[in-house]
Write a structure and sequence with these properties.
single chain; 12 helices; eight-stranded mixed β-sheet; 34% strand; 698 residues; five-stranded antiparallel β-sheet
Length: 698
């Protein structure tokens, strides 16, 4: 082993509520410091040296991932107006190419595009590879065309900080217009195509203002249409599928407020509030026309923990409510999409996503059935107000990403495309099932497992297990296919997901029981899942690796302190491991918004004490036999700053942890590196480390 970098100790005192914490590594927060950069580079050099023996395996894994992917491929075209829009990839190219071809007037069947075969009438709108030239990082943000299809809007980020620059192209002449709008978030055209609506962020990285830019005018003269002053609320905007209204939405983690602007009138008119904000009430709005009347369908949780769906007159949104789908405990309503003649409702029941059709006239719902016991399904790629097909996305642990279209006349599911997996992949070679662990308070916690059948079913013999978790923001980790994961499964690893409290898999109460002053349930649930897999003979501690990213990285840091003996290794991606320091500082990006999720330790002594009891950095224990740990971060991450894992790794080393590595991407953001080949290499690096930990490095 090479000598690990040892960070200098320079104590900073942090005092709140009568408690003083001596922080020896807070000096690493200075991103502009040459010393900090040198330390991160030293960490990278150490990680490179310690993992150099895995380079042949990393290359094999990369080639396996690459070899399973149809590198030259096309998406299923989506119809908007008189055009079919699609993207394609070419072998050897990092980024997608966005294109369109003309649609016949009455033909709603998407053209069948074959990889490598030229598309008749193709027009290339944007080539990501051209945009990325000369840049180490590239992210495409907004992408929109005018309703008359004559102009294109797109935005780019070359740093990874999620601040995008908007540009506009005339699709008739091919000319890029002089309009250029920097430092934006979301952006889209006005319905008449003469302007751009876009959001900007405040100093804390919070989207807070909606602007109108008229094409051909100076950006300095742009009109501010809406500003949200409350630093706990963020802002977004969009146009209803009907193209009737502009919707401006502001929200915190627990409270919503939305506004309407009728697009048939003055875009700069004062927006109409739909429901005034009320602490703890969340809602979202869709527009429909029912029996000739403009109606708003509102999904909300007022006195309805798992949400209910109501409709109101668009002319009087605070008037009489018609209950469409009443609150039903255990049926968590997730979202609604309104179309001309029907709507879709997505909901969660028994831990799985469901999709149903809603009849405007009767309020009856009709579930769309799928065959597998574990799957993910949702409505996607349906921009048109009226179409004879409804497009759905579908996947499972063993079924690659699939695009179906539901024929609305016959109710037949038509397969439009399934992602090709090269190399002879067969879903029948793999198994998937759900197991249940019991938490310390008696709560049953679901665990999803997927494995290769030729190695035997889980529990038949001790096997390596890769256990993933998240457990925050009501975000659910649903069944999904992964090409990269096959490299683990084919070597005998069982992949598992611990659906811990704090996520949304089992309804809103599942989330409530894993946030604020119940946050420790997230961590103890994950430990319970690990212990269940060990006790039931599926694996053993020396063959168990845990992984989580972002808030899931907080989970990783917490379980490393709670149960280090249960894991052979822990992979923490962009980990939120210095949570208390961050949430105490309202000047940091997104902190005030996060108080609804974690609590406000700045003003609440009880929250401060509770967070201090679990935040990973402050609870590293001296002399503990920690498992092997790999922390992965990005210098330009604007959500979880690099300093958190850097400090955590330094503290772990100080405490005597024997094998702790930090990998910091010097040009990347919260999502890691950009470009598909770069992403595959990054995942190959992580998988090689995991396989090494469980003794399968070959």
């Amino acid at each position: 082993m090479t000598d690990a970098p040892i960070a200098a100790r320079r104590s900073t005192l942090r005092t709140h509520h009568g408690d003083t914490f001596e922080d020896p590594y807070e000096w690493m927060r200075d991103k502009e410091s040459a010393e900090v950069i040198a330390h991160l580079e030293a960490e990278n050099a150490h990680t490179d040296a310690e993992t150099a023996h895995l380079e042949p395996l990393r290359e094999r894994l990369f080639q396996e991932i690459k070899g399973r992917v149809q590198e030259t491929d096309l998406s299923v075209p989506t119809r908007r107006g008189d055009w079919w829009y699609y993207s394609r990839t070419e072998e050897g190219s990092q980024y997608g190419i966005h294109c369109r071809t003309a649609a016949a007037a009455d033909d709603w069947t998407p053209p069948l595009l074959e990889p490598g075969v030229p598309v008749p009438g193709e027009s290339v709108l944007l080539d990501g590879n051209v945009e990325a030239e000369g840049h180490e990082f590239f992210s495409l943000g907004a992408f929109d065309t005018t309703d008359d299809a004559t102009k294109l809007l797109w935005s780019t980020d070359f740093e990874g900080d999620e601040l995008y620059t908007v540009r506009v192209r005339d699709l008739v002449t091919g000319e890029t217009l002089p309009d250029e709008i920097p430092n934006t978030g979301g952006a889209f055209f006005t319905p008449d195509g003469t302007g751009v609506l876009y959001t900007t962020r405040d100093e804390a990285w919070r989207p807070d203002t909606l602007w109108l830019h008229r094409l051909g005018t100076d950006v300095a003269d742009d009109l501010r249409l809406f500003h949200e002053p409350d630093e706990k609320f963020w802002l977004g905007a969009g146009i209803t599928r009907s193209r009737k209204y502009l919707v401006i939405a502001v929200g915190s983690s627990i409270t919503s407020e939305e506004y309407l602007v009728d697009l048939s009138g003055d875009l700069t008119a004062e927006p109409t509030v739909i429901w005034p904000r009320s602490e703890g009430v969340e809602y979202s709005v869709e527009h429909a026309v029912v029996d000739g009347e403009d109606r708003l369908y509102i999904l909300h949780n007022q006195d309805a923990l798992d949400f209910e769906l109501v409709s109101v007159a668009a002319s009087a949104p605070q008037g009489a409510r018609h209950v469409v789908l009443p609150h039903r405990p255990g049926r968590r309503l997730l979202g609604m999409d309104a179309f001309r003649d029907f709507a879709t409702v997505e909901y969660r029941s028994e831990g799985l996503e469901r999709v149903a059709l809603l009849d405007y006239g009767t309020d009856a719902v009709e579930d769309i059935a799928f065959d597998e016991p574990l799957y993910s399904a949702g409505v996607s790629g349906n921009p048109e107000w009226h179409a004879p097909f409804l497009r759905l996305g579908y996947t499972s642990f063993v079924t690659p990403g699939t695009v179906y279209e539901l024929d609305l006349a016959t109710r037949e599911l038509v397969l439009r495309k399934q992602v090709a997996v090269l190399g002879g992949y067969s879903p029948a070679d793999y198994g998937q099932e759900r197991a249940w662990a019991t938490a310390s308070d008696g709560t049953r916690v679901p665990i999803s497992l997927v494995w290769k059948r030729s190695f035997g079913d889980p529990g038949a013999a001790l096997r390596p297990v890769h256990l993933y978790g998240y457990g925050s923001y009501e975000h659910s980790i649903d069944p999904g296919f992964s090409v990269a994961r096959l490299s683990e499964l084919d070597r005998g690893v069982i992949f598992a997901i611990a659906h811990v409290r704090g996520g949304g898999e089992m309804g809103r109460q599942w989330y409530e029981d894993g946030k604020l002053l119940h946050k420790r349930n997230t961590f103890t649930d994950f430990v319970a899942c690990a212990e269940h897999l060990i006790a039931s003979g599926v694996t053993s501690p020396d063959r168990l690796v845990a992984e989580g990213a972002s808030a899931g990285g907080l989970l990783m840091g917490a379980v490393a302190n709670l149960a280090p003996e249960s894991f052979a290794g822990i992979l923490a991606g962009v980990p939120f491991v210095d949570a208390l320091t961050t949430i105490l500082d309202p000047s940091l990006p997104l902190t005030v918004i996060e108080w609804d999720e974690w609590g406000d330790p700045l003003h609440g002594a009880d929250v401060y004490e509770y967070m201090k009891s679990y935040t990973p950095y402050e609870n590293v224990r001296d002399g503990v036999d920690y498992p092997r740990i790999l922390a992965v971060t990005s210098l330009n991450d604007s959500r979880v700053m690099y300093v958190e894992p850097a400090k955590w790794v330094a503290r772990l080393r100080e405490a005597g942890a024997a094998d702790v590595l930090l990998k910091c991407e010097m040009v990347a953001g919260h999502g890691g590196v950009s470009g598909r080949y770069n992403s595959w290499r990054e995942r190959a690096f992580e998988l090689a480390w995991i396989l090494d930990v469980v003794g399968l490095a070959e």
